[in-house]
Amino acid sequence: xxxxxxxxxxxxxxxxxGDPDAxxxxxxxxxxxxxxxxxxGQVVAAGTRExxxxxxxxxPAGARLRPLPVAGPFHTPxxxxxxxxxxDAAEQLRxxxxxxxxxxxxxxxxxxxxxxxxxxxxxxxxxxxxxxxxLQTLRGLGVTTVVELAPGxxxxxxxxxxxxxxxxxxxxxxxxxxxxxxAVAAQHPEGEHLDADWRVVVAPAxxxxxxxxxxxxxxxxxxxxxxVSNRSGDVEIVMEPATGVVxxxxxxxxxxxxxxxxxxxHA
Length: 267
Fold this sequence. Notes:
The protein is an alpha+beta fold. It has 3 domains: about 5-75, Malonyl-CoA ACP transacylase, ACP-binding (Alpha-Beta Plaits, 2-Layer Sandwich), CATH 3.30.70; about 145-195, no CATH class; about 200-265, CATH 2.40.50.100. It is about 25% helix and about 30% strand. It is built from 7 helices and 15 strands. The chain has helices spanning about 20-30, 50-55, 80-90, 115-125, 130-140, 155-160, 175-185, and strands at about 10-15, 35-40, 40-50, 65-70, 100-105, 110-115, 145-150, 165-170, 200, 205-210, 225-230, 235-240, 245-250, 255, 260-265. A hairpin with a 2-residue loop joins strand 2 and strand 3 (about 40-50). Helix 1 packs across helix 2. The longest helix has 11 residues, at about 20-30.
């Protein structure tokens, strides 16, 4: 998608604090778009470099502006060429008809049909991220525990500020798994179990990811999923026990951070 918007010299900047209406007015007057409305007083503006310079020159009262190190004005109409390319690719994907439910960043709706989820993912390329609406949905559902998968932190912080009396755990490393399990177990009666038929494999180090196998639902006979390459060499990613890949979450050649999810594999 980056190649599809290389002709757009744009970026993003976070606005922290300030009156919500004043923040939106400043974004509009600068010629930017509110690309992320995250809740907890956090809005991300996106636009051309000239528009972001105008916003920085006249920020809304009471708000701190922080430029973000991104490659383009994501979640805005400037990403239309990328959305078209993704729509063509999405048409080739087979999706499950039903699933347990995924909250859409488009409007906070709970989606239970795979076709709707695929459509929303494409729309999200040019539409704002409304994580604030997702938080409202979680509150309405009476959610009592929130676990952010690795590399966690940002969303967990937003949830803590917006959701009262909710236990929030961020999975930043394997050391946090026990705390996440304890938080979930505390909300369920003895004898009630939440068993997943898959688990997430994360990068053991920072570097470039190279999978040892390709495709989904395949056997991994030697347990080797791939390597993360960096200046120190190759760090192998080995699963025990090894069964097969459900879904790849990173592609060959992707730069990854330590703890970043790489794949979902059969439990």
